[in-house]
Amino acid sequence: MSSKSILDEYLARIDRLPTWGLSYLLLWALGIGYFATLYDAVSNLGFALPYIPFINPTQASIIVSVGLAGYIVGSIGLGITADRIGRRPVMILTFALLGIGSLGMGLATNYITLFIFRVIEGVGIGAGLNLAMVYISEFSPSMKRGKYANWIFISGWTAVGVGTVIAALIVTTYPTIGWRVIFLIPAVLSLITTAVLAVLSPESIRVLVKKGKITDVEKIVKKMEEVSMRRAKVSSLPQPRVIHYEEISSYNQLRILGEPKYLKRLISLTIFWFFIYFIQYTSTGLAPTFVKVVVGFSPIQYAEYIRFSGFAAIGATVISFILLGVVERTDRRLLTQIGGIGFLVSAYVSTYLLLHKALIVWFITYFILEFLLNPPYLAGYLMSSESFPTAARSTGFAITDGIGHLGGVIGPLLLFPLIGLVGPLLAWVVLAAPVPFAAALLWFTIPKTVGVRLEEINEGYIEKGIQKR
Q: Where is each Major facilitator superfamily (MFS) profile domain found (predicted)?
């Protein structure tokens, strides 16, 4: 029996499982790691920068951008490596780098040290966003893939919500050392994740079959079946629905992704992420500096804005829980389209209210807008992990998310020059305007993926002598 036929049978056995088949502690560890990843990416940096005494606003913009450059290196470099040598060792390295980078930032005493460790942290963030989602997708039954991916997504967006509140309260309560504390928190969490992954995480069965380690695969899948049956309190499982998929002849990732079928997905997802990050990282990284320098908030108003920002972000956490009941019933592309429109609306409304210093109205409005701004991330991460074949899955995700992060590098560098050219309100609208159009492009390039096996979306399959794509 060929290795491809063997893999098809193991995929069918996993697909029939009624629950998650690996340790829940592993899910918790990935959730904690994802919390640290998005906490570092979204929650803490923007609040910390204005309180760091040894940097100026120009250096703050560079710290935001250089971290995103690190994301690109991490996402693409470690993503390609994960496709070549395996998910497990690269994922462990990823969270170790995230922990070391965060620790170094928390202990930094000058701009150069902060710069270096921000790059290291950025490498870990970029790869973490990629590999955690790919890993969960490959071990989940297809009908529950969105559900389990959303569990770690909830952890990440708890960082965006609750984590933002914590960061805001710490830096305003302890303005001298608070910025250090909010970098040390994700350092500890990332290193905990690293330790748990080193002990509990198995290698992806798709990778193991490719390497010919069938005995290891049988042990993993058999244990998953036993664990899942015990959790679901059933004595037997349904017969596996084996589908024989078309084999990918090349294991050269770039050659695979260059095929027209995958290239259009790669390009459209890259464009989507570019413009999402273009506005997102400009907002999360520089909005506190914007209200302090451009709007001219007083120290009391600024502290109030920081606290309101934290509590408003809880809306992101609330909607991530709501998505548990929505994500497996709603087309991913619809979620991204709604969010794309939300970004444009938010850019105008939020900026207008901040310019008029209507903080309470802004807080209520932004809390509600989070219900629109959050779903595109889960939908986009899922589509990025679902739209490429096994041999190039991490690489495809890495390229779309990694090159997409160039938007996050460029956006922060454009904000203040744009404000000088067109004024603050129009500047934010210009940064957000491309997002709904980038989301619309996905309707023409990405297939519907809800409840569909990964190989069925990508490799195509052969059933009764008829090849299907």
A: 1-450
Residue 58 CB-density burial (10 A; 0-12 exposed, 13-18 middle, 19+ buried): exposed
- Domain boundaries in the chain? 17-213+252-458
Instruction: Kindly report the three-state secondary structure assignment for every residue of 206-262.
Output: HHHHHCCCHHHHHHHHHHHHHHHHHHHCCCCCCCCCCCEECCCCCCCHHHHHCCHHH
The β-bridge partners of 419 are none
**String of DSSP letters for 116-178:** HHHHHHHHHHHHHHHHHHHHHHHHS-GGGHHHHHHHHHHHHHHHHHHHHHHHHHHHHHSTTTH
Q: What tens digit of pLDDT does each residue of 51-87 get?
A: 999 998 888 878 877 887 888 888 889 988 988 899 9
pLDDT at 2 over 60: no
Q: Using H for helix, E for strand and C for coil, what is the string for 94-107? A: HHHHHHHHHHHHHH
Measure the CA angle with vertex 376, ends 148 and 307; round to 5°: 95
Give how far Cα 62 sits from Cα of 32, 112, 124, 262, 345, Å.
Answer: 28, 11, 18, 34, 28
Q: Do residues 10 and 217 lie in contact, with contact meaning Cβ atoms separated by under 8 Å?
A: yes
CB crowding 336-361: b at 16 or more within 10 Å, else e: bbbbbebbbbbbebbbbbbbeeebee
295-346 tens-digit pLDDT = 989 888 888 888 888 788 788 778 888 887 888 788 999 999 999 999 999 9
Task: Give the residue from 111, 129, 31 showing the smallest Cα distance to 71.
Answer: 129
Side chain identity at residue 39, one-letter code = Y
178-200 and 24-38 helices cross at what angle (nearest 10)?
150
* Residue 468, strand partner residues: 461
Distance CA(247)–CA(162), nearest Å, equals 45
In the structure encoding, which two tokens stand for residue 236, read together? Answer: 């037997």
CA-wise closest residue to 77 among 453, 401, 306, 301: 401
Q: Which two tokens stand for residue 89?
A: 């060792």
SS3 at position 87: helix
Question: Is the whole-model pTM more than 0.85?
Answer: no
Third-level CATH fold of 17-213+252-458 = Growth Hormone; Chain: A; (1.20.1250)
Q: To which residue do tokens 């070391």 refer? A: 100
